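ZP: hey, is the glutathione complex queued? I don't see it on the tracker
AM: it wasn't, my bad. submitting now with these inputs:
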Amino acid sequence: MKLYNEADPAPNPRRVRIFLKEKGVDLELVPTPLTKRAHKAPEHLARNPLGQVPVLELDDGTHLSESVSICRYLEDLHPEPNMFGRDAKERAVVDMWIRRVEFRLLFPLSQIWVHTHPFTAAVATQTFGQQFKEFGAANRKVFANGCHLFDREIGYRPFMAPDRYTMADIVAQTTFDFARFIGVDIPGDCAALRDWYTRVSARPSATFEVPEALLQHARSLSG
Ligand SMILES: N[C@@H](CCC(=O)N[C@@H](CS)C(=O)NCC(=O)O)C(=O)O
C-alpha cells in the first residue's frame, strides 16, 4: 500500500499524514509534486481522474482518493486510537463536524485562495476565465463567520467532536494551517478557537513543515 502525497502546505495529503502519525502507522509516501504538474500526468489521472492528491494505492491495485475516505479505510485496518467514533452516535457527531468544517470553513477559504491569491491566478483564469477578486475577498467574511461558529462550540468542549481528538480536529486544523499559509487568520476575538488551534498544533503529529521563507512569500503576495 502506498500514498501519493504532496508536502506541506497542501492540506489534504497533510490530513492523511497526521492521521497516520496519530495511529503510529508508516506508509510508503510517493512524492507527487503539484508544481511539476505530476498530479495531472496521465499515470496519475489513471489513479484519480480528478488529478488530485492524496491517493491511496492498495496492494490489489485499487485507488482511493478523498482524504477523509482514505482515513476511514485506514481506520478499519488500524482501529486504535479511534478517530471516527466508536458507536453510531459518535460516528454521526464526528461526521457532522467534518462536514461543517468543509462547508463553513474550507469552502470559503478555497474561494479566497482561488479568486484572490497570486499563486492561483493561472488556474482561476483557466477554470473561470478570470479571478473574481471581489467574490474571493467577500469570502473572508464567510470564513470569519464560520470561525465564530466554531469558537462558540469549542467554548463548550476541548475538541471539535466531544471529548477527544478525532478526524474532525484534523480536518479543521489542516484548514487553519492552510489559511495561515495564505494570510487568513482566525479572528482575534475567537479566543477559544485560537486556544484549541494552539493545543492541537502542539501535538507531535502536527508538525507543519513549510519553509518559513515560503510562508512569508505567500503572505506578502496575499497582501
Ligand atoms: N476533497 C479532496 C481534495 C483533494 C485536493 O484538492 N487536493 C489538492 C492538494 S491539497 C490538489 O490535488 N490540488 C490540485 C488540483 O485540484 O488540481 C480530498 O479531501 O482529498
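AM: back. The chain is about 55% helix and 5% strand.
ZP: great, adding it to the tracker
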